[in-house]
Each structure stands twice: as structure tokens, then as C-alpha cells.
Amino acid sequence: MEENEFFGEKTFQRYCAEFIKHSQQIGDGWEWRTSKEALELPLDDFEVTESTATNEVIKYEYHVLYSCSYQVPVLYFRASFLDGRPLALKDIWEGVHECYKTRLLQGPWDTISQQEHPILGQPFFVLHPCKTNEFMTPVLKNSRKINRNVNYITSWLSLVGPVVGLHLPLSYAGAASQDE
Amino acid sequence: MTDDKDVLRDVWFGRIPTCFTLYQDEITEREAEPYYLLLPRVSYLTLVTDKVKKHFQKVMRQEDISEIWFEYEGTPLKWHYPIGLLFDLLASSSALPWNITVHFKSFPEKDLLHCPSKDAVEAHFMSCVKEADALKHKSQVINEMQKKDHKQLWMGLQNVVSTWSSQEIETTQRVKQDRFDQFWAINRKLMEYPAEENGFRYIPFRIYQTTTERPFIQKLFRPVAADGQLHTLGDLLREVCPSALAPEDNPTPKRQGLDVQACAQKV
């Protein structure tokens, strides 16, 4: 069995720090938060997007956490209308682009589900992390081959983010290849 | 593993006598009597309360019924936590029966996950088993199992829920034993490790406390120290939750209701 990319907690923190640095430069809104009781470290972003169906404004909140069980980052998110009403799973599902739906429906482990946020204890939606290594390993291997610096968080978020409405400005990629 | 069998059985067959009462503001067509049930510790609220739901819905109109949820002394009960955990965390120092309030309105979106079906409970259960195996065996054992083995784990958990009638309790004993055997036939594979390793890669654990904002403590912890000594539960607590052992607080850690002092010998 081929060795998967080992992605420890310190590495996670390092990549997040670089990611945040660029976010601050372009005013993208990501923050670094620590819980005083230790190691899970969420980032946060507030984005306001429009829903096509009902023409209402929906607020999305994204958190990136580290899973020590799977040793990968995990994307947690929730969404609500401006009056505070939360979106249900079926509403979230409606917002997922067709091209991603087939893949997500293939297995329970690839899908979006409602989970408890491990630090806040509140309901969030999550993309299941157990397949992350599977799709990140070739990305990282390939960039090593061509000797290119890669920020794991940037690459990973650019892959999973769009599925749930989160799009990273291209300038993050430029920043990643410059970081030592 | 054989010397732990008594503990396994005690946990598996553990029951909590519970009294379900309808929330006073629910709209009913006539008085709703409380409903009594022996809840299995090793299961989930939404899995074992069909009878409770039916009982109260009999006195309500369809339009007054939305998603059911449960509350204890003002705290919404997280159905995705094992029943035994909920009880130990919130009600273990109160007199029995455990008094739970049933709601059919105003689902607390900010506190509770939705539970649209029994499939959601199964998905959650399997997700926990999978994560535990990621820690124990890098997911190798769970991934090598067939779908039918996963199903068998889940079916083992479909405990027969008994009421307080002694006849029902007697007749379900044999079925309960079958379920235990069924579950452990598969689970034992998830509890094995290579002889040379002396333990799992990491111990899957979560520590729940009411005194913290964070829902639980979960960290990487190896069963064997660098010098080859086996870690004990005391070592684990000292490392990840030292306040639990502080003499001035004197809380005793509970694992599914059993005082942990008795089984702190080997993790």
C-alpha cells in the first residue's frame, strides 16, 4: 500500500498561517481562531451569496478544522438566510452544482452531512474527510515531481470549496508558489 | 479480552428506566399520560423511541406534530450521543427514573442535528466506527470488511426495547444475547491488533464533561509508552484532562455508568 501524505497538526498550522497571511493581504476575510482548551483550530470566512431560486440572500460561514483521526483538514460550513433561519440539508443540496452531485451521490463517505462542530458543539454541514488523502496524494506527488511549492490548505480548499459554494481567488495559488 | 467479558456484557445490557412526559405547551386533544421505558445505554434516542412517539401522537392532531426532539431540565438532548452517555453526563446524580420531556414543535436548530430517518442514525453510527478504526488500524480493518459485516454491526445494535413488564423482559433475554453475539462476531475483528504491536495505533476515545464549552476532548494517544510500558486510563487522563483527576474536584470518571476505578488497569 503506497504511503499516504503524512499531514500532521503542526504542518496544518503552518500552511494555515501562510494561507491567512495571503487572505489578509487581499482582504478575503479568513481568521485564525484558537480554542483555549487546545488543539482544534478553526478558520472562518463570511460570504454573502445569492440564491437563484428564491432570490433571497444567504450567508455562508466556513470553518477549516484539523481531523487528528484522519490527519487531514476538514471543511465545516453552515448557511442561513439574513433573518437567521438556517438552511436545511436539502436546500444546501440544491445549491450544489450538477457536475459535483453525481460524485457526491456515489457513496455515503463522499457526501455532505450534518455533524456537530467539534469545538462549538453546534450543527454544521461537513464534507466527509476519509477520502481526502485519496485525492490529495496525487496532487502533492505531482507538484513534487515538477519541483513546485504547494500549500496543502490552498490546494485542498480549491478542490473541495467549489462543491459547497466556496471559491478561492486565484492569487492564493501565486502566493503558495512563492512561500518557502 | 476474555477477562473483560463481564464489563462488555454489563455495558451492553445496561438499561436506564426512563419516564417520558409531553411538554406542557404542546397542543393535545386530551390529557397525555407519561410513558415509561427501559432505555438501552448502547443505543440512540431516535432509534428506540418509536413507541414514545406513537403514544403521544395518539392525543395530538397531525398539524401540531413536527420533528420530535427530547429535552432534560431545559437541555435539548443530542440524539447522536449514546443514551448512556447522555444520562451519565446530565442525570446520573438525580433519582430514577430519568425524566425526559418530549417536544413536537420548535425544533432547536442551533443545538440539535436533524434526524430524518433511521438511516441517519445508521450513517452516524458507522461514521463513528469508521473514525475509531482510522485511529486503531488506519482504517484497514473496516475497509476490508464487506457491506454485510457493516450491516451486522448495525443490526446487533437494534436492541429489543422492553417496557417494565416482567414477562416481556424474560422473553427478550434470548434475543438480546443473540444480538450481543452477532455484534461481537464482527466487532472482535475491530478490536484485534498484531501480536508484535502490543496495541492499537492510537486509542479511540472522547471525554465528555458538562463543565466545558467544548463538547468533548479527543486527541491522539498511543496505548504503549516509548519505553514499552502499557498506558493506563490514569495516564490518559493525566495527559489530556488533568483537571478530571484534581483531588479538590474529586469527580470520578464514568465509562457508560461503571466507575472507572474498577477497570483502570489496562486501557
From TrEMBL, chain A:
The keyword Transferase applies. Coiled coil: none annotated. The keyword Transferase applies. Pfam families: Autophagy_act_C (PF03987). Keywords: Autophagy, Transferase, Ubl conjugation pathway. It comes from the Eukaryota. Belongs to the ATG10 family. This is Ubiquitin-like-conjugating enzyme ATG10. It comes from Equus przewalskii.
From TrEMBL, chain B:
It is found in: Preautophagosomal structure membrane. Pfam families: ATG5_HBR (PF20637), ATG5_UblA (PF20638), ATG5_UblB (PF04106). Its main location: membrane. It is a peripheral membrane protein. It comes from the Eukaryota. Keywords: Autophagy, Isopeptide bond, Membrane, Ubl conjugation. InterPro entries: Atg5 (IPR007239), ATG5_HBR (IPR048940), Atg5_HR (IPR042526), ATG5_UblA (IPR048939), Atg5_UblA_dom_sf (IPR042527), ATG5_UblB (IPR048318). Residues 11-104 form the Autophagy protein ATG5 UblA domain. The keyword Cytoplasm does not apply. Residues 202-260 form the Autophagy protein ATG5 UblB domain. Residues 118-159 form the Autophagy protein ATG5 alpha-helical bundle region domain. Involved in autophagic vesicle formation. May play an important role in the apoptotic process, possibly within the modified cytoskeleton. Its expression is a relatively late event in the apoptotic process, occurring downstream of caspase activity. Plays a crucial role in IFN-gamma-induced autophagic cell death by interacting with FADD. Belongs to the ATG5 family. Conjugated with ATG12. This is Autophagy protein 5. It comes from Equus przewalskii (Przewalski's horse). The lineage of its organism: Eukaryota, Metazoa, Chordata, Craniata, Vertebrata. The gene is ATG5.
